[in-house]
Design a protein that fits this description.
Elements lengths: L16 E2 L2 H10 L2 E8 L2 E7 L1 E4 L2 E7 L3 H5 L5 E15 L7 E15 L3 H15 L12 H6 E7 L2 E7 L17 E4 L34 E2 L3 E5 L5 H7 L3 H4 L10 H16 L3 E8 L5 E11 L4 E9 L7 H17 L4 E7 L3 H10 L2 E11 L5 E10 L3 H13 L6
Parallel strand pairs: 15-16
Antiparallel strand pairs: 1-9, 2-3, 2-6, 4-5, 5-8, 6-7, 6-10, 7-8, 7-9, 11-12, 12-13, 13-14, 14-15, 16-18, 17-18
Length: 413
């Protein structure tokens, strides 16, 4: 426990206060919203900054030319630091009782300028690790010049308080009859879809992937004919070159890309759906040459009902009627039935796409019916969709037939 002081003892709402060390550390470790308060020449200043906690010290990031860092030279700088996590907005029937649910830490003390290079490096490493576990070993460390241009303040955590609000609306009894909506809107910091910088070819780091369940995890799958790996923007140029044929896109629900930028949009759509938990997208590589040859996905992912669909598949024409598509489906079926415990795998295809229907039937799937006016084609017309499915009890025989077919197929060189 942190001992209360005159500066950390409130004059009102004392029930919201805490001096629990573990609670303070939890807020400091979770939050990114940090404000550094100090005075310069008798004038108040507040600066937003980055922070990280190491043990009982709060470190604050800055530039060697900034006011607080210059003022901290010598005997240190008296500061007040506020770190906040906003958890929700509280809507009351009366305007007066509107509020917010939050957790915040306020720390007072004298911050010192970190001059020891090892301590500064440890802080910067911890800060990078805070935004992504393992990131410090997957990036270039700072150079001596960069270290010299970076200033770090260290604030011992001694005079610390935690203030929070949780729960619902607190309303005057006289207002409870008012015909206005009241309640809580929960808030949380939610990451969006990662947007790689131009020219990035490295795969997306594991800490940036959003796998809600094992069903949403785009694990790599390997066979003799094909390798399936998580789809990335880095595959754009190869994927565009392999599938630059209108016939490849003829029955898909997107127009054929005419340039790599169009293929990047297709990839972006897949990754956005994957980020929302609606899809798992793979790129297909020839296992012999390593060339990117197409893409395929899981969609309609339903772990509760143990069901998934395979689709959004497009494959370069050069690799049609080879073992690549067959083995890709075998790998995806094995992943679904054997690894994830699926009881049903489905396919959907345009009623005009006879070649696709024949291929799905060769897998051992059963035609279940036609979904009329199910999806819209790129030209605006409505397509009827043929639905197929394979169930768990059908999988063993289908697996044996597919393995026998692949045994007689020579991998494409």
């Amino acid at each position: 426990m942190y001992p209360p002081t005159a500066r950390t003892t409130p004059h009102r709402s004392r029930e919201r206060m805490s001096y629990d060390e573990a609670a303070a550390h939890a807020v400091l470790d979770e939050a990114y919203d940090c404000a550094l308060g100090f005075t310069v020449d008798g004038q108040p200043r507040v600066l937003p900054t980055l922070h990280v906690r190491i043990g009982d010290t709060l470190y604050l990031h800055g530039s060697t030319g900034s006011r607080p860092l210059l003022a901290a030279r010598g005997d240190g700088l008296p500061v007040c630091v506020a770190v906040t996590v906003l958890d929700g907005l509280v809507y009351a029937r009366s305007q007066f009782h509107h509020s917010a649910n939050y957790r915040s830490v306020v720390a007072h003390g004298t911050a010192r300028l970190v001059t020891d290079e090892r301590e500064k490096l440890a802080m910067l490493t911890a800060l990078v690790e805070k935004v992504g576990p393992g990131r410090s070993t997957d990036t270039r460390p700072p150079s001596r010049r960069e270290l010299a241009e970076t200033a770090v303040l260290a604030l011992p955590l001694r005079e610390v308080s935690v203030r929070s609000r949780t729960g619902g609306v607190r309303e005057d009894e006289a207002d409870l009859h008012l015909p206005h909506w009241a309640g809580v809107l929960p808030l949380r910091l939610t990451p969006g879809r990662p947007e790689p910088d131009a020219g990035v070819t490295a795969p997306l780091p594991a800490f940036l992937r959003t796998s809600r369940t094992r069903w949403h995890d785009p694990v790599s799958l390997h066979g003799d004919h094909v390798r399936l790996e998580p789809l990335e923007f880095a595959h754009t140029d190869e994927l565009h070159a392999a599938t630059a044929d209108p016939e490849v896109w003829r029955h898909l629900t997107v127009a054929p890309p005419t340039a790599p930028t169009g293929t990047a949009e297709v990839i972006g759509t897949a990754l956005a759906a994957q980020h929302r938990g609606e899809r798992v997208a793979w790129v297909q590589r020839c296992a012999v040459t390593g060339a990117v040859v197409g893409s395929t996905s899981y969609y309609d992912i339903d772990p509760e009902r143990r069901a998934v669909a395979i689709g959004h598949t497009f494959l370069g024409r050069q690799w049609w009627r080879t073992g690549i598509n067959t083995e890709a489906k075998l790998l995806l079926l094995g992943r679904a039935f054997d690894d994830l415990g699926a009881v049903r795998v489905a396919w959907h295809t345009d009623i005009r796409n006879v070649r696709s229907q024949t291929a799905i039937e060769r897998l051992g799937a059963t035609r279940e019916g036609v979904l009329r006016m199910h999806r819209q084609r790129p030209d605006g017309s409505w397509r009827d969709t043929v639905q197929y499915a394979m169930t768990l009890d059908e999988w063993p025989n289908a697996q044996a037939r597919l393995r026998e077919r692949l045994r007689r197929t020579t991998p494409v060189a």
